[in-house]
Amino acid sequence: MLIYRKKSLIRRLLYSAFILLLPLFGSAASRPVVTLSDTNGVSATGQIMLYSPRRDLVKLRLDDGSRSFAVSALKPESLKTLERWRADENFESRSSLDISFRAVHSTSSSNVTGTVTYRRTRKETEETIGYEEKHFCKYKIRVSNDSDTPFETLIADYRIFFTQRLTEEYTGRYQLAGTETLPKLDARDFWAFSTAKFQCGISYREAPRIRWTGMPQASPPNIQGVLLRIRKKDFNGEWIEREIEHGEVPRNRDRSDYQKVYK
Question: What is the CATH number of the domain that holds 167?
Answer without folding.
Answer: 2.60.40.10
